[in-house]
Amino acid sequence: SVILDVRAACQDATVTQELLKEGFHRDLLVKVELGVGEDAGGCAVAARTHLPPGIYVDPYELASLQQQNLTKAVLIPDVIDVEAPEYLATDLLVLLYMEPDPWCSRCFRAALPVHGRYHRPAEESEEALVILKSPEVLVCCCDNHLSAECWKPAEVEASCSGKNIGTCQWYSVMHKPAYEESILQVPVGLRQHSSLVCVVTLLATVLCSSLILAAVCKYGDFS
């Protein structure tokens, strides 16, 4: 009965994850609502999510946004090949720091720009599906006032503030996602169009090269 009482006292957090906009360039919006009775005052709340190879965060864009205090996140690894196609890329771990919702004491939210990678051409469908799992909810408190029964230590090497001032202990909580996963639809080419694409590309290359050569011959100074 003690175990049942503890479980009843531990309220799951609720996580909502949305992909805004269309096409390759999207915004990932994450909302977290902690369980009833959980006090996160003075704590840092973050969402830890795994991005599959079909989607990535541009580290240069992220650095610019962080300088403007528009978002705060840690990328693992922090070196990302933004030009690599999906089939040559690897997974990416993102720790997204969340801001408190002024209208809800237990609610937090954050947004992060993400980008779809190019996929191999498909046989039939003109879209590839990228599955994005629901993130894990993490909390870091300086005074360690979290309930030991409801929260468990998480292996996260990052500071509570998101700045390089040393690491601290993060804790993970069980949560119930509004949706288990989000689906990103990325446009892809069709294999039967490959011959047409090659011909058009060759003709465009020849035409542009001819125009450049003609301009050089007409206006170039060969003396």
Automatic annotation (TrEMBL):
Membrane topology, record value: Single-pass membrane protein
Pathway, per record: Glycolipid biosynthesis; glycosylphosphatidylinositol-anchor biosynthesis
Transmembrane segments: 194-217
Entry keyword annotation includes NADP: no
Ubl conjugation found in the keyword field: no
GO cellular component entries: endoplasmic reticulum membrane
Family membership: Belongs to the PIGX family.
Functional note: Stabilizing subunit of the glycosylphosphatidylinositol-mannosyltransferase I complex which catalyzes the transfer of the first mannose, via an alpha-1,4 bond from a dolichol-phosphate-mannose (Dol-P-Man) to the glucosaminyl acyl phosphatidylinositol (GlcN-(acyl)PI) intermediate to generate alpha-D-Man-(1->4)-alpha-D-GlcN-(1->6)-(1-radyl,2-acyl-sn-glycero-3-phospho)-2-acyl-inositol and participates in the sixth step of the glycosylphosphatidylinositol-anchor biosynthesis. Probably acts by stabilizing the mannosyltransferase PIGM.
Protein's name in the database: Phosphatidylinositol-glycan biosynthesis class X protein
Source organism: Oceanites oceanicus
Gene it is expressed from: Pigx
